[in-house]
Amino acid sequence: MKYVVALILGLVTGAALFALGLLYNPFVADRSLSPLSVTRAETIALNFSPVPSESIVFTNDGEKIHAPNPEKVLQLWEAPIRRTSAMVSLMRDARGESAGVGIKFSSTSERTRLFSGKALTDSVWYIYLPERGSMFIQQTENYWQFLRQVAFPAWRSSGNNWRGTWLGNLTSGPNALGTARVVGGSGSFRGLEMEAVESLTVDAFSADVGFVAADGQLIIALPMQPMSEQPD
Amino acid sequence: MLKTFFIGVVLGLVAAAGALYAVPAVDQVREASVVLVAPNGGNFESFHANIPMDRVMVGAAGQEQPLPPGLDWPVDEALAGVRTEVFKIRNARDAVVGVAVRTAAQREDENVIDWVLHLPARGSMFVTMDALPQEGGHRLGEIRDGSREFAPLSGFVSERWVADTSGEEDAPLGRIELTATYVGQLEPLDPPESVE
């Protein structure tokens, strides 16, 4: 009997060691530097709040930690969209003034591989800026570092929350440098192909209700002008 | 006994690694696609949103009865001519397969009508519609970009309002019907093997 108990204890310890190794795997790269931080192209910065209660509308299947807002919004409970969330947000420019409206659809990705530090989400943004036009952003986001450095410590803490300052780039593709693909639809963006990076700054997170204090930012790099069109 | 414990530890490590490797962390539910072959080439697929059941949000200035109830649409002069609607979208079998956003906006130089369709198990597509409807009331648009399954596709989307005529008590008022016509990218054929 004691051998069976020892074997079960060993199994549990082994599984726990594996989970710890996964969480603190030093071989998973932490991409904290945005590929667009060194670009010479003109960029547009759009800020938004990822906190559901601060967005215009946020909805999901109603069973995740982020509660839908407003409370009576239609929920995405049907099986094919149960792992999807929709957020409508006011987009602000770098000066904090409203620049337009952004709608983000996010779905957990089937390409998620926790083994190699990939907690992936396939997401798209539709952004309409009245003064400039519309654009479509498609990206793969990796939340692994966020889960490791914010969500897990929040879950582990006695108060189920985390406070601090965490800044991370979420975008990990589909472009070669790990940037999002952006296509312009109308206005001055019409016909343009651009790239973007979405980042998140978290100041407070709760394992019960999700984001408490956080800011999101999209940096969109406009296409570089050909050398012949650049001023001397 | 210590030896048994260490064997258990190794087995636990292997079992956890094997389980994580073999069992997918995410398995999206996928409705079988209803894609038909068009007689003149390409494929087409029909989506629709039943109104009002599938309408998630109507974002526009000055609504007396906002949808969803409690919606606080920003009072901003810049958004005065913008109407954004979010829907659940269904396939030809009336099963919900995704979500979509339609934005209509009046600009000084052009009117904008854009759709983004997001089908979690397949990908997304971005469609820009003509501002003016065709004869018969439908509107045509072009697939500008797509992700994953839709990335290599181009084509057109038509949008039309189909009023319900069934007269059933719980029937929708009608539906917004979107018919996507896909054209794949031409791929070069493999060169014929030389016959020696």
User: How many β-strand runs of chain B?
Assistant: 10
Net shape of chain A: globular
Specify the biggest β-sheet of chain B. Answer: 10 strands, antiparallel
Number of helices of chain A: 2
The residue-averaged pLDDT of chain A reads 90
Structure description:
With 232 residues, chain A is α+β, with helices and mostly antiparallel strands. Chain A is 15% helix and 40% strand. Chain A has helices spanning 2-23, 144-156, and strands at 43-48, 57-59, 84-92, 98-108, 120-129, 133-142, 161-169, 171-173, 180-184, 193-206, 210-221. In chain A, strands 1, 2, 3, 4, 5, 6, 7, 8, 9, 10 and 11 form an eleven-stranded antiparallel sheet that branches. The longest helix of chain A is centred in the first third of the chain and has 22 residues, at 2-23. Chain A is globular. Chain A starts with a helix and ends in an 11-residue tail after the last strand. The mean pLDDT of chain A is 90. With 196 residues, chain B is mainly β. Helix content of chain B is 11%, strand content 42%. Chain B is built from one helix and ten strands. A ten-stranded antiparallel sheet of chain B has the order 1-2-10-9-8-7-6-5-4-3, with no helix packed on it. The N and C termini of chain B lie far apart (71 Å). Classes of the chains: A alpha+beta (232), B mainly beta (196). At the A-B interface, helix 1, strand 3, strand 4, strand 5 and strand 6 of A face helix 1, strand 3, strand 4, strand 5 and strand 6 of B.
